Automatic annotation (TrEMBL), chain A:
Protein name: Centromere protein P isoform X1
Chain intervals for the UniProt region annotation (Disordered): 21-46
Pfam families: CENP-P (PF13096)
From TrEMBL, chain B:
This protein's name: Centromere protein O
Coiled coil: 46-73
Keywords: Centromere, Chromosome, Coiled coil, Nucleus
Gene designation: CENPO
InterPro entries assigned to the protein according to its UniProt record, in alphabetical order: CENP-O (IPR018464)
């Protein structure tokens, strides 16, 4: 038992050191040597010179915890940031006490599985009365690009130079994607015979099939849209697939009105309960 | 969205509390050894840690491979001579810079002795506007120590709804209100500043900038101000009005072109920011 506990301690220490190594821009070779150094220090006992660097690392720990708090709060993990400034004040400006500075910012990071790289420019104009700061250019590169809903949103954010909305909407979009994935996985696990995820759990569609009547299929399409104002909204639709014979027997046109009925159901029960009731209604009499 | 809310509640507040206790320990302490007594728990934990360590090792290798080849000629021994002080200093710079960069996400902040001071930044159409802060004390219940939120923003209402259950939601909601207010204020200021010639007298507004009233003309050279506008922004989280009333008060009341203009103005005020409506008036006047 002790040996295993020791192994856990050693692993945790190495992981902490590796994490630190991952965050710094360092020349090659330094990474592993500093990882080694940190590991050594962790196992060292108190010593005078070490106490001084302990303060510094205490301060670093403080900064680290602030960063961790912010990335948890905003959902955005900023990994790299740099800025350059260029003074654009002309002699005419100086006479009128006007100062113009152009800032070039570079920012990169990730929001869960989506990574982004931003380059933007801010023009700061300072005159006697006020200081104005305007984003004059915004370029956004995102990966992965399989979320097609995002490319339109990104162009809109770039056109409007709306940095704040970009981050806010990205965070909510990713949260909704995670929620959708979890929900689909939950139903796949619970009703493994009836539920199929033909494009995987991270996609936008879930297929429900009655195991006894394989010709009947309900396809739930769950898209996540970002509207003009940057609001993130789920949009669910129901598609039905039934054999021709069933269509002919459907005198009450239940199948035709199913998509509308589904929308109403969503409004009343919410997403999870609506999906659950849909699946159970198709699998009536099944043993789970 | 219950699920996400629960996650945030657990995530942010619990995170803060965890960080709080971590900070009071000295740096060199490792995390307490796992309390699981079951063999299998320990085994799974070791397995998970090994996976994470392998993943991080791979990342570190990747990083090293990406760094420029020009430094590859350096003797490995030389790297050990770089003092801990310098190395840590560089890392500190980087982290401080990233902390500053968080203002571009709308929310940034720093730890305080009592808890955390969150800074909310506002912007409208690429214009970076005022920021506001909320100083939170990490206690049960969570409370606001002090803040710079204007008194006409319904802070009490928002904190009563969300502060205790979901800090993230509380801050996002406050952010929405503040950004909308900043946007409305910006539009009103711009109108006042750049289009004063189109207005008969100053723009009348309340502190929330959600009720505006003014008398205006559309031709800069015209002598009279035939239109009277009243804009109401009932939804405090938007920067476009919910109610627009334009009345024509000129003497030529019988002419239908005035009615057409009046109606088209109403539509413009509903759909475009205030100062942009006047920019288009000015542009039309130049033709």
């Amino acid at each position: 038992m002790d040996a295993r506990r020791a192994e856990v301690r050693a692993l945790e220490a190495e992981i902490a050191a590796l994490r630190r190594a991952c965050e710094e821009p360092r020349t090659p070779g330094e990474d592993t040597s500093r990882a080694r150094k940190s590991l050594q220090e962790i196992h060292q006992s108190d010593s005078g010179e070490w106490a001084a660097s302990k303060d510094l690392r205490g301060h670093l720990g403080h900064l680290e915890s602030e960063l961790l708090f912010l990335s948890t709060l905003t959902g955005i993990n900023i990994i790299n940031y740099s800025m350059k400034t260029e003074d654009l004040t002309s002699t005419e400006n100086t006479e009128k006490s006007i100062k113009k500075v152009l800032q070039r910012h570079r920012l990169s990071g990730n929001c869960h599985m989506i990574t982004f790289q931003l380059e933007f420019q801010i023009l700061e104009i300072q005159n006697k009365e006020s200081l104005s700061s305007v984003i004059t250019d915004l370029n956004i590169i995102m990966e992965p690009t399989e979320y097609s809903e995002l490319s339109e949103f990104v162009s809109r954010a770039e056109d409007r130079r709306d940095l704040l909305m970009f981050f806010r909407s990205l965070h909510f979009f990713v949260e909704w994607c995670e929620y959708r994935k979890c929900t689909f996985e939950h139903f796949k696990e619970k009703y493994s015979e009836a539920v199929r995820l033909p494009e995987g759990a991270a996609s936008s569609c879930m297929v429900v099939q009655s195991p006894r009547q394989p010709g009947f299929e309900l396809v739930i399409v769950w898209r996540i849209q970002i509207d003009e104002e940057g609001k993130v909204l789920p949009k669910l639709d129901l598609l039905t697939k039934v054999p021709q014979q069933a269509l002919e027997l459907d005198k009450n046109r239940v199948l035709e009105t199913a998509p509308l009925g589904f929308r109403a159901l969503l409004g009343v029960l919410g997403i999870e309960a609506a999906l659950e009731s849909l699946i159970t209604s198709l699998c009536v009499g099944e043993n789970h | 969205m219950e699920w996400a809310n629960d996650k945030s509640k657990g995530g942010v507040l619990a995170h803060l509390e965890r960080l709080e206790t971590q900070m009071s320990r000295s740096c060199k302490n490792l995390e307490d050894p796992p309390r699981e007594t079951a063999e299998s728990d320990l085994g799974t934990k070791i397995h998970k840690l090994r996976c994470l360590r392998d993943k991080l090792r791979a990342e570190v290798k990747q990083r090293q491979a990406r760094i420029k080849a020009s430094t590859a000629n350096a003797e490995p021994d030389q790297t050990l001579e770089i003092s801990e002080q310098e190395a840590v200093g560089g890392k500190e710079e980087n982290m401080k810079a990233i902390l500053q960069a968080y203002r571009f996400t709308g929310l940034s902040g720093k730890r305080t002795s009592r808890g955390v001071c969150v800074c909310i930044s506002t912007a409208f159409e690429g214009n970076l506007l005022d920021s506001y802060f909320v100083d939170l004390v990490i206690q049960k219940p969570l409370r606001i120590h002090h803040h710079s939120v204007p008194v006409f923003i319904p802070l009490e209402e928002i904190s009563a709804k969300y502060l205790q259950t979901n800090i993230q939601h509380f801050l996002f909601c406050l952010c929405e209100y503040l950004n909308a207010y900043a946007g409305r204020k910006y539009q009103a200021d711009q109108l006042q500043r750049d289009f004063a010639a189109f207005l008969a007298g100053p723009l009348q507004r309340n502190s929330l900038c959600n009720l505006l009233s003014f008398t205006y003309k559309v031709e800069p050279q015209g002598r009279s101000f035939p239109f009277c506008a009243r804009l109401l922004y009932k939804d405090l989280t938007t920067t476009l009005p919910t109610d627009v009333t334009i009345t024509y008060q000129g003497t030529d009341a019988s002419s239908t072109s005035w009615e057409e203009q009046r109606a088209s103005h109403e539509n413009l005020f509903f759909t475009k920011p205030l100062h942009q409506v006047f920019t288009s008036f000015a542009r039309n006047g130049e033709r």
